[in-house]
Amino acid sequence: MGFDSTSASTELRSHRSVKMRWLWHVFAVVAACSAVAAACSDGGSDDDAVADAGSAAPVEVDEGAAQDAGLPDGDGPATSDDEDADDATHSSAAAVVGSTVPDAAASQGLACGLATGQAATGTPIKVGAVVTITGAADFSSASRSAAAYFDCVNANGGINGRPIQYLVEDDGTNPEQAAGAAARLVEDEGVVAMVASTSFLECGVNAAYYAANNVVVIAGTGAPRECFESANIAPVNAGPRISLIGAAQYGVETYGIAHIVCITFAIPNLGEWACDGIAEWGAAEGIAAEVVTHPIDTADPTSIVLEAASKNPDAVVVIEPLPLGVAILQAAEQQDLAADIHWMAGTSLYDAAFPELAGPYWNGRFDAQIELAAVDSTGADNLLWLSVLDAYGSPDQPRDTFSQSGFLAAKIFTETVLGLAVHELEDRAAVTEALRSITRFESDLLCGSFYFGPGDEHKSNHAGRIASIVDGAWVQSADCFEVNDPDLADTLALERQLGLGQ
Amino acid sequence: MPDLGPFVVTGLALGSVYALSGVSLVILYRSTGVLNLAHGAIGAFAAMLAWDIGEAGRVSVLGVAVALAVSVGLSVGYGVAVSPRLGRRDPVVAAAGSLALALVLLGLISWHWPADLRTLRLPTDGMSVEILSVRVTGTRLLAAGFATAIVGGLGMMLARTRLGLMLRASAADRVAASVLGIETRRSDLAAWTIGGLLAGSSGLLLANLVRLDPGVLTLLVIPAVAASAVGLLRSQAGAFVGGILIGLVEALATPFEIGPYRAAAPFVVAIIVIASRRRVYAAVRSVASAHIQGDRYAGPSKGPPVLLALAGITAVALIVPSALDAFWTKAYTTSLIFAIAAIGVSVLHHQLGEASLAQVALMGVGGWIALRVSHSADVPFVMVVALATAVTAAVAGIVGLPALRLRGLMLTVVTLMVAGAVQAILPVTGFPDGGGGVLGRMTEGGRVPMRRPSFAESDPAYARFCALILVGCLVASLFGRWRSFGRGLATVSASDASAASVGINVIRVKTTAFVVAGTFAGLAGALLAGSTRQLDPASFRAIDSVVLCVIVIAAGARWWSPIVAGLLMKGAPALFSELGIDGNLTLVVFGLLLLQTLLFAPSGISGQLAGALQRLSVGKHP
Fold it and tell me: What global pTM score does this model have?
């Protein structure tokens, strides 16, 4: 493009003073790094949300409680403003706290772990999670609620006096990074188990690695097929396939549909796996079922809904990431396709903001199967989840199904390892064995009960509820019912044989 | 035969989205000489600002004003402070600089506005007209109208007015323009202001029409490049037609068997159009002749220093894994593998003078073949790698065919189209993981891990294995520079005609260069499959290919520069993660690092390193 006068003079100047130029580079890099470091320290994320030994502090303590506990105002190490709770997450890693703060938690009477109200002070037990935080999506809601629950446990006697140190790694939606994250946690940090992992790709990438290293994963929200069909991974949720079939079943029961179209994105072990479930279920139940797949990066939702509508179905079921889900519903609204067709979805679209963003058109016209309890349900565990987030989480963190799943995974882990002797807590094999031996864990967040079970399939969650959009908000419209995924035959036979679950 | 009527309408609607961005890219390219890869990122920033200022996702007048003002500010800031300093290097470097800006912006946006469900509603959403029983909203009509207005208004401005002449003159040749009395600073200001306005306003429209997702909006620039490539980057009418054509092909593919693959449509259309247009060669000739040799490989050195350095690198590379923990062993292995791929990019860029934006995509091809072969036949690992490498080299040869007619930025754009197509296809096919059928995918149970060679079963052993292969590749690349092949490349990079006049078979030299680059990509892809024992499409996005190319340019032209490139590409992110830096800010740091290198280090990072070493050994500044 030729020289311009500016750059030419820059070059001349730099020839005269090589030393100056070198200094300038160093300065530029240092400035950039320090800017980043500064930005990190006051914004920060919670990828290293560590609730460790000395810092058994809750991530957040309200000012009043801290004062009750005798802490000078503003002097509490992990005290923070409500608006800036992320800060507190970071400082919790560094702060050293006496036994005063947990009194605040005890005064709130949360039944976390041993519920002693005494901070755990022993050697920490390391627990890990690999979570998609940056890249294609942010699923940190799961690990943040697990971190809040572990903080609560640590403030209440820990695991027989020993606190949990929770190490969360971001996989950046990149397979190599996901593998590196697992290696860091399993080999370098020596975690005893993985809890509340929630990722687009981690299950597929690391399943064989976890099996080879005898590490068990109590996953938060599993999505790809490999999360449910690997030896060492057991998610607490049901997954997109079961969720979608549940929605379709509801459509048959409630609306009497006989012809259904499943819309999803073309990724084999995720979207296509889920819609294949609809096709297999349709074949087994005598319901005509067709599948419409589209590229994940599509900029054209209108063609998708027109393609689905051209098959003249009674109902459409949708399994999509949230933003694309909204785009597809908006396209359907523009073409007025909900006038004659029932629209339903899996849990991925059950988000508090969804009804408002989708718009009033969908009032009374949209149902979603939900894999865990409704977020506003009044069961004991659901209320405990909300209270733990209020006390140990941050006000801006989502109260969604991901969050419930992280909480539930953390609770399952905690209550299981509480049964181990103190010396066994160091021993990964003992922890793995204990988690594998879970045969029935009851919670009102689930319809059935959680178990780990033998073999390569771990699908303890195969019943769910239905939520519908009513007056711009989600309302639970059907209580627990079993999902008839033909693929569950082996799982159900095993349950009967071994007396697992219910 | 399905009823295609509705898809014609949706195709036109989708086409207006591509046309809008494509035409904007062409206008900016014609007036600044920069293929602005930050176009989508600036638009995403504008859209997020407008969303933040508006209420409940509804855009206010204030929101639009602030959004447009900020996009103009960003665009002009970059265009005045950064871009002219890159202008003296080739157009690929200028595009690379804008990519660095895109990374910085995307990182800052994702960091400030964490992923959440958002929509941007415009007042025009409520209106609609019905065409062939498809309802088309007012916003879509507005987008189509806006694109048409740009083609008409701004195109006319560029072609007919004095300002347009000034812009085109300084974009084509800044020195000549300033000699003729054009104030290049003023024309920069005008051009980048227009660019900012276009980026901001199309960002607002696309956030509504596509979705309010910064990542999606930023990367929408890649299909937009496809639209502008149909206009050969120089004709806004061509880009408009290209956008519409691409949208039509993509939408019309919906009801057919190939439907899931339709995201590849923009790239396939662009490649076919470019390959079939006779004007292409002439159109890009001026760009190619503007290549400045500044950061090319300076000349081969032989003898003891190189041998000594090779021995040193080998020793260090073999010892390092003993000192690393599990996390760093993996990061180290991946860095070495990307260094091998970087050699291929370096041969093309520093020796032939072309930039390939498809290298990581070709790694995906190599990895796919390696997994398919490994899972279906009991052949030794080395054979698997050799086969994958050979097939990828052949594929690269085919990709390089347009190289026989193209040079410079247009050729680079073709490689980007290949990367885009691979990105669209791989998620649908997936990678073989031990199952049957052509695609070799499991339908139940977990993935079967790929076998590694028996002598490199553990991670540290595999890292050493990769280190040895990397050293072998470096030796091969040195031989390539020393022998007649290197001289052939150097001559062709200067001029096809002069190379032909001294008896060099230009076609053979160019094809060989692409095959060589493909060989390194295939080898790297196969080794990556062995490293993680499986692959996932998320590793081989078009943006990764672009980043690798930018890093290779930034790393410099020395024979050991690819090592620096590999370490930067995969080691730096690992370091940031080790330091606990937010994954989004990693993008920002990465972008800033690239910018500083492009701006301040004409001989690349390896030049800076070599200079520092030299000063250390001499003990004083030269």
Answer: 0.85
